[in-house]
C-alpha cells in the first residue's frame, strides 16, 4: 500500500483509506462492514474515516468494532457536526465520538462543513482537544481556500492538518486552486466520494470506454484506475467506502502501481478539470 506524508504532520498515511458513510443497517450487513474494514486495515487501508453524523453515531460504533484490538495501526478520523460546533459543543461531541469508537484519542478531528457557530469557537475547542491529547490533529471539511485561511487564523497556536473535500472524475474543481493552496500550506487534501455516486462513469459512455481500455492494458479494474488517478498528486488522499471484502480488496489494488503520463492525459481529456475557478462542490 502506497503511503505518503499527511501534509506538514509528516505522518505516513496510505493514499487510499476507508470511508464509513452508510455502513449502518441490518445486523448481517453491519457484520460484513466490520469484516471489510478489518480486512482493509490488514491490507494497509489504515486511514479510517467516520463522523458523528453517519447513522447518528452508529457508523462510529461499527468502526469501533473494526478497530478494536488494532487501534495503534489505524489513522482514525471523525467529524463534529456544524450544529454541535460551539466551543462546549465540540468538546462534548468529541467525547461522545471517542466513547462510541472505544478509544481515548482521534488522529484527526474535522469540522464537517461550515457552521453558523463562529469558527474561532470551534477552533478554540480543537486547540484544547489537541493540548489535552484527545485529538492529535485538527482539520476542516468542505472548506474553500478563503474558509481554510479563516480557520487557520482562528487556530493561532496549531496548524490545520487537513481539508476533506469532494473529489471524483466528474468534480475536479479543487485541482485549480484548492489543491495547490493546500500543498503550499502543507495541508493534506482528502478527497471523498471517489466513485461519484450517481455520476460513476457508465461503461458504455465515451469516458467509460477510455477507463476500460486503460484498465485492461494494466490488468486492473476501472475503479482501481480511478483511485490511482485521484491519488496521483502529492498530498492528496482518497477514502472509498466499501461494504464487503471483495470491494475492499479491489479498492486496495488502486495503488502500488503507476499510471503512465499518456493514460493520465487520456483521462484528463475524457474527464476534464474545469478551465476556470469554480465554487467548491460538495455533496
Ligand atoms: N466530508 C464529507 O462531507 C463527506 C461526504 C461524503 C463522504 N465522505 C466520506 O467519504 C467516504 C466515501 O464517499 P462515499 O461513501 O460517498 O462514496 P464512494 O466511496 O465513492 O462510493 C461508495 C459506493 O461505492 C460502492 N463501492 C465501493 N467499492 C466498490 C467496488 N470495488 N466495486 C463496486 N462498488 C463499490 C459502495 O458499495 P458497497 O457498500 O456495496 O461496497 C458504495 O455504494 C464516505 O464513506 C465518508 O467516509 C465525507
Describe the model.
With 283 residues, the protein is α/β, with parallel strands linked by helices. The protein has a single domain (3-270), classed as TIM Barrel, CATH 3.20.20. Helix content is 40%, strand content 14%. It contains 10 helices and 9 strands. It has helices at residues 27-42, 58-67, 87-101, 119-132, 145-153, 178-185, 206-218, 222-230, 245-252, 261-270, and strands at 3-5, 12-14, 47-49, 75-80, 106-111, 135-141, 162-166, 188-192, 236-238. The strands form 2 sheets. Strands 3-4-5-6-7-8-9 form a 7-stranded parallel β-sheet. A two-stranded antiparallel ribbon has the order 1-2. Strand 5 (106-111), helix 4 (119-132) and strand 6 (135-141) form a beta-alpha-beta unit. Helix 3 (87-101) crosses helix 4 (119-132) and helix 7 runs antiparallel to helix 10 (261-270). The radius of gyration is 18 Å and the shape is globular. It starts with a strand and ends in a 13-residue tail after the last helix. The model has no long low-confidence stretch (mean pLDDT 98). Bound molecules: NADP nicotinamide-adenine-dinucleotide phosphate. The site of NADP nicotinamide-adenine-dinucleotide phosphate has 24 residues, from helix 9.
